[in-house]
Amino acid sequence: MAAAAWIVDPVFRATPQFVSEPLSADLGVRLVVKVETPNPVRCLRG
User: Fold this and answer.
1) Strands (E), the chain
2) What is the DSSP letter of 26?
3) Cβ neighbours of 24 (radius 10 Å)
4) CA gyration radius, the chain
5) Which H, E and C letters describe the chain, residue by residue?
6) Is the overall model pTM greater than 0.70, yes or no?
7) What is the per-residue pLDDT across 11-22, written as a single tens digit (0 to 9) for each?
């Protein structure tokens, strides 16, 4: 993962994350949800 970090466009690096308290309680773990919907949709040809 660290090797790929240099190639990931910076626009994708700052997506919001939050702890889902209801799911954390139900599952018995600290569940962090990462919101991907603010990211732009794009496709790059290789």
Assistant:
1) 17-19, 32-34
2) H
3) 14
4) 15
5) CHHHCCCCCHHHCCCCEEECHHHHHHHCCCCEEECCCCCCCCCCCC
6) no
7) 766 788 999 999
28: phi > 0 → left, psi -120 to 50 → alpha, else beta; which?
left
For residue 30, CA distances in Å to 8, 11, 18, 24, 43 come to 27, 27, 10, 5, 33
The 3-state DSSP class for residue 41 equals coil
Q: Which residue has the tokens 């018995």?
A: 28
Distance CA 2, CA 30 (A): 24
Contacting residues for 35 by C-beta, under 8 A, at least 6 apart: 15, 16, 17, 18
The helix/strand/coil state of 22 is helix
